[in-house]
Every structure is written in structure tokens, then in C-alpha cells.
Amino acid sequence: MSMFDLTGKLAVVTGARRGIGRGLAVALAEAGADIIGVSANLEDGSDVARDVEAAGRSFEAIRCDFADRDAVLAAGRQLAERAPDILVNNAGTIRRQPAAEHGLDLWDEVIAVNLSSQFALTQLVAGPMLERGSGKVIFTASLLSFQGGINVPGYTASKSGVAGLTKALANEWAPRGVNVNAIAPGYIATDNTQALQDDPDRSRAILERIPAGRWGLASDLGGAAVFLASSASDYVDGVVLPVDGGWLGR
């Protein structure tokens, strides 16, 4: 199992305060990585910090509003100085509104947080990886990287963009020793999906479509994250890996 061992590695996880990001940070810590968590509201004594430290690893918090380009660039420069081994681009937002009424302000916010900021941060943080010829970049994509969704046009466009960006960066950076891949979570029980969980009709329809028969948990994504962050995936590039309980195969 040594190929999955992350001991001595430093991982940056954005959107780490709760939900999927917290689950990914804890999984990487349990595999041996020290964690730098980046979120708009995050402190060293947060729940994710306690989880990481309980796994025997160190945790450092950096605050960054991913809707603020200058803040993202500043965080990226700060992180690049630390030369992390792993970057998990998980920060994201979602705004639900029918396409005909979907405000351009909502569109701009979602694209900025979910796509533009991911690219800007990755450019900076991946710099030291490219210089030394090794590193792992993992994006959080979505089922809506493959499908259209309902009432979330900005989110769908951004996550489709994340899938494309994953492949584009992999094409350029694989020859330079940096693996770029993405995880596409299925329907995971988090704050972002609370509206769907609370809608009896939508929740029932979703569960009927999932062969595994349940909503996913943030912890269900941990194995995929450790795989893509470790030497076990050294020959894996440009993959968007669904972790969805079988949704896409239905």
C-alpha cells in the first residue's frame, strides 16, 4: 500500500471548511499529508482543523474569497512560496434559478468562483510543481460536467469548464511530471444539495436513479482523492472520475 502513502506531502485543499472539502482534507491527512485549508471563512480551530490534527497531521488555515480576483492571486502567491505537492481545487458555489430569470450577477459570481479563480490559483500554485517536475492537481468537477441539470445554468457551465480545463492542463503538464485530474461527485449530502434533499419529489427521483440507493457522503470521495494525490496515479492524466453511486451508468 506504500504507493498510496502521502507521508511527508503537503496538500492544499480549497473550500475545506465543510462538506466535500472537509472530507477530502481529512482523507488526505489520514493518508499522511499535512494540510493547508483555504476558504472564505476558516480558522485554525475549525472542525476540519480538529479532524486533520486528530489524524496526526498539521493544519494551517488561509482565508480567501474566491469571488475576489485580487484575493485569489494573493493567496496563490502565498501558497506558491510553500511549494505544495498536492493542490485540490474544491472551492465552489451554486445559484439556483431558472435560466430565463438567471441574473447575470449570479452567472458572473458562479463562473468567477468555480472556474476563473480555479485557473488563476492553479497557474500560481502549479509553478513550483512544474519547476521540480512533480505534483498533483485535482479539481472537483460534477455530474453536471456531463449533464445539463435543472435551474443551474451557471453552475453547469462552470463545471463543464472545469472538465475541459482538467484535460487542457493535463495535455500540457503531463510531459512535465504534473498529473492533473478531477473528481466528479454524484449527489452528495452537503449544504449545497440541501434544497434537493428537502424537496420530497426531487429527492425521491434522485434516489430512484442511483443504483447504490443512497445519497453519497463526503467521506465516499476520500479514496478517489488519495488515489489521484498519490504515486498510484502517476500514469493517470486528464481523467474526470465520477464517484456517483452508479448514477452515470444508469
Note the topology.
Blueprint: E1 10-14, H1 19-30, E2 34-39, H2 47-54, E3 59-63, H3 69-82, E4 86-89, H4 104-132, E5 135-140, H5 153-173, E6 178-185, H6 194-198, H7 200-209, H8 222-229, E7 240-243
Parallel strand pairs: 1-2, 1-4, 2-3, 4-5, 5-6, 6-7
Helix pairs in contact: 1-2, 1-8, 3-4, 4-5
Key traits:
alpha/beta; 250 residues; 7 strands; 8 helices; Rossmann fold
In short:
This protein is α/β, with parallel strands linked by helices and 250 residues long.
- Give the class from helix and strand content and strand pairing: alpha/beta
| Quaternary organisation of the protein chains | single chain
User: Which CATH class is shown?
Assistant: Alpha Beta
H/E order of the elements? EHEHEHEHEHEHHHE
Number of domains: 1
CATH superfamily: NAD(P)-binding Rossmann-like Domain
Residue share in β-strands: 15-25%
Q: How many strands in all?
A: 7
Biggest beta sheet summary:
7 strands, parallel
